Amino acid sequence: VQLQASGGGSVQPGGSLRLSCVASENIPFPTHMGWYRQAPGKQRELVVSIFSDGSTYSIESVKGRFSMSRDNAKNTVYLQMDNLKPEDTAVYFCNIVNFRSNYWGQGTQVTVSS
Fold first, then answer.
1. Cβ-count burial of 100 within 10 angstroms (0-12 exposed, 13-18 middle, 19+ buried)?
2. Do 22 and 14 touch, CB atoms closer than 8 A?
3. Nearest to 30, CA basis, from 98, 94, 78
4. What is the Cα–Cα distance from 60 to 8, expressed in whole angstroms?
5. Residues 59, 91, 67, CA angle at the centre, nearest 5°?
6. CA pair distance 92, 77, nearest whole angstrom
7. Mean pLDDT in each 10-residue stretch from start to end of the chain (114 residues)?
């Protein structure tokens, strides 16, 4: 199974982007789906996630600005990012975990700059 992330780009502060992560095939019974990011010189961090029970998690700095959703029919998860800030600049990775494996997308660059 491969995850293909897309939707990154360069935007001005206050702008929006929607990232997509498409799985090459259905990943059965995911226990966790999330978006991570890694800024230059920093460790990769979990940004938002959805758990198998439907509960969600997001880091404090993106609450009210980022939201994650999924379309099971399209094997796709999304990350809607609004009111972007320069500190959101990073490479964003999607991740899906199930009983078989831990799947990662290749990363998509998000740059927020005026």
1. exposed
2. no
3. 98
4. 22
5. 40
6. 13
7. 95 98 90 95 96 92 95 93 98 94 95 97
- What pLDDT shows up at residue 45? 97
> CA 27, CA 43: separation in Å to the nearest integer?
27
Unique residue bearing structure tokens 């975990």: 97
Unique residue bearing structure tokens 């880091």: 59
Say if residue 26 is exposed, middle or buried (CB neighbours under 10 Å; 0-12, 13-18, 19+).
exposed
Give me the pLDDT at residue 9, please.
Answer: 97
* pLDDT for position 50: 92
Whole-number Å distance between alpha carbons of 36 and 48:
7
